[in-house]
Amino acid sequence: MVSLPQQLSLGVNLNDDATFENFYAPAHTHNAMVVQGLRDQLTGSGEAFVYLWGAPGCGLTHLLQAACHEAQSQGLSVQYLPLRDMVGYAPDELFSGLDTLDLVCLDCLPSIAGRPDWERAIFNLYNQLREQGKRLLVAAEHSPRELALGLEDLRSRLQWGLTYQVHSLGDDDKQQALQMRARARGLELGDEVAQYIIQRLPRDTNELFWQLARLDHASLAEQRKLTIPFVKKVLAI
């Protein structure tokens, strides 16, 4: 990660759990193709500009941060920017120097839709990165055509590269994803307990994983296994 100007330092950090290996995408599924497309982007064998979109909770932020982790492991310079948290800043100043980086990831793109200064700044950043032979990864809840953008030139640019829709998981896949994440934490999460959690919590995978982290900490503190009574006590569900 590069250092933002001191006056713009917002404590932008990557989640250590956000890796491609931790993203539930079984082989030969659509989401597995998306992950491969992002890996190809980083190695230079794929498209340099990638646009991801999908419903809330489908894992867009996870994939952007996973791409950053992967890029860093390859010695590439990267910057992840959650635009939702940055709309109060001057975009031209925030973007200064980003065109020298190997990978720029812009999350929550709809947050700046309808803001002429931001739209123009992203349009200029796109062109600068393209001229420098760098990579851009963008995420939004809508496809480029559905974004409420005022600058049509920006919409056109966003459609130049690859566009992937990230598919949300069904309940069975969410159970598998939750159990996979539990194993990565060294937790044993049986089918019955996993089903209990999914049936009683919001289906958003971000929420499920956050609650799993709570269970992990409680299990470690109390030296307890993940049983339904323990889960019910910790999560009050």
Q: How would you characterize this protein structure?
A:
The chain has 237 residues and is an alpha/beta fold. The protein has two domains: 6-165, 3-Layer(aba) Sandwich (Rossmann fold); 171-235, Orthogonal Bundle (Helicase, Ruva Protein, domain 3). The chain has nine helices and five strands. Strands 2-3-4-1-5 form a five-stranded parallel sheet, sandwiched between helices. Helix 3 links the parallel strand 2 and strand 3 (103-107). Helix 1 runs parallel beside helix 2, helix 6 (171-184) crosses helix 7 (191-200) and helix 6 (171-184) runs parallel beside helix 8 (205-222). The longest helix is centred in the C-terminal third of the chain and has 18 residues, at 205-222. It is elongated, with a radius of gyration of 19 Å. The termini are far apart.
Summary keywords:
2 domains; disordered N terminus; Helicase, Ruva Protein, domain 3; five-stranded parallel beta sheet; 9 helices; about 240 residues; alpha/beta
What topology does this entry show?
Blueprint: H1 30-43, E1 49-53, H2 60-73, E2 78-82, H3 91-95, E3 103-107, H4 116-132, E4 135-140, H5 152-158, E5 162-165, H6 171-184, H7 191-200, H8 205-222, H9 228-235
Parallel strand pairs: 1-4, 1-5, 2-3, 3-4
Helix pairs in contact: 1-2, 6-7, 6-8
